[in-house]
Backbone:
């Protein structure tokens, strides 16, 4: 009888210890911080999520479109043409006036360049005289300003061009087109002297 009671006590103790151990395991599990996976972002039904693109200054460009005129050109003088009734001053160069040395030759050189072609004028600005200034190109991509300078019938005007046509100038261009050179240097007295001589001849 005593052995049976002792066996029951041992069994009861074992059961008690087993139950107590389970409770401690449950308590420890609850005390550990939960590691939850992040929830997916909520989306409004019917709408796509939008991400703003990062601004990249290296590939950014102006959205302002340059005004362009295209059509046959009527030549006024060496560095002035008309397209669709708009008078256009060629960008960055200075050709002689019609009554100056080489003035007529410069005009007819421009006529020859433009004849039979549609000229593309990319307008850059208005000059001090209200004229439209433009970079003008032939259909094959040739720059009219550069072509006239190459022929020695115009000179680069660095004040407006930044010197982009200077390398195209012929060796004797500034000597031949001395009145244009004088204008660029602000020597309008040279012009007046030349004009006076012309008037006296007539």
Residues:
């Amino acid at each position: 009888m005593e052995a049976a009671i002792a066996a029951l006590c041992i069994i009861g103790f074992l059961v008690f210890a087993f139950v107590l151990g389970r409770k401690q395991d449950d308590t420890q599990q609850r005390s550990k911080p939960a590691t939850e996976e992040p929830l997916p972002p909520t989306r409004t039904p019917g709408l796509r999520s939008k991400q703003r693109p990062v601004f990249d200054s290296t590939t950014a460009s102006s959205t302002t479109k340059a005004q362009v005129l295209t059509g046959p050109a009527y030549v006024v003088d060496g560095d002035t043409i008309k397209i669709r009734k708009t008078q256009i001053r060629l960008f960055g160069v200075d050709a002689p006036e019609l009554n100056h040395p080489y003035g007529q030759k410069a005009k007819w050189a421009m006529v020859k360049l433009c004849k039979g072609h549609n000229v593309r004028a990319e307008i850059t600005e208005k000059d001090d005289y209200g004229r439209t200034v433009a970079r003008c190109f032939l259909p094959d991509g040739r720059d009219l300003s550069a072509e006239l300078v190459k022929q020695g019938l115009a000179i680069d005007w660095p004040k407006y061009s930044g010197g982009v046509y200077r390398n195209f100038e012929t060796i004797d261009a500034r000597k031949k087109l001395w009145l244009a050179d004088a204008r660029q240097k602000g020597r309008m007295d040279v012009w007046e002297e030349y004009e006076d001589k012309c008037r006296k001849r007539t």
Notes: The mean pLDDT is 78.
